[in-house]
Amino acid sequence: MAETIVEQAKDERTQALEARERLKAGVDELVQLTSLHVKVQAQPLKYMGGSAGGGFLLGLLLGRRGRKVKKVYIERGTGRGGKVTKADLKSEAKLVQVQQGKQNRTNITGAITGILVTTLLKIVQERFLAPQLENYADKLLDRTKTERAKAEKAKSRESEQRS
User: Fold this and answer.
1) Which of 22, 36, 50, 113 is least crowded, fewest Cβ atoms below 10 Å from its Cβ?
2) Largest Cα–Cα distance in the chain?
3) How far apart are CA 1 and CA 8, in angstroms?
4) Contact 95, 70 (CB under 8 A)
5) How far is the C-alpha of 47 from the C-alpha of 41, rounded, in Å?
6) Residue 136 to residues 7, 17, 69, 89, 94: CA-CA distances in angstroms?
7) Whole-number pLDDT of residue 134
8) Over the stretch 38-63, which tens digit does the pLDDT of each residue have?
9) What is the spatial distance between Cα 57 and Cα 31, in angstroms, rounded to a whole number?
10) Is the model's pLDDT at 67 over the cut of 60?
């Protein structure tokens, strides 16, 4: 009878060790799947291009909504008897260039903003989220250890009471 109890205890210990290894493997796989750092190292150009493109699109969308482009309308030839001079054409061209330059700056600003936001999210994930996941996994592992220990104690008490 004592031999069967010892064998059961050994079986339970091996099961507990196997469960622990499965849990560790699952947590490692979860970290690998959620780790942006690992993904960026595997395919850096893909993620850099994606973040730059996303930033550019974000800049296009937010740049047009957030800022209204001031349109300047020019009446040609007023005050000179309806004649258009070269000076009028040059000043009109300068105003158009200024307007287009402002629009291009908002697009570039949006792209830079997107890259910065992506980098900031990566830092937050590596510095804060990954350690929190590790702490949570450690707590789960400790909880399973205590539950196994309680179950083993309860079984040993039952077997002692039977004998």
Assistant:
1) 22
2) 121
3) 11
4) no
5) 9
6) 33, 19, 50, 69, 61
7) 86
8) 777 778 888 888 888 887 887 777 76
9) 30
10) no
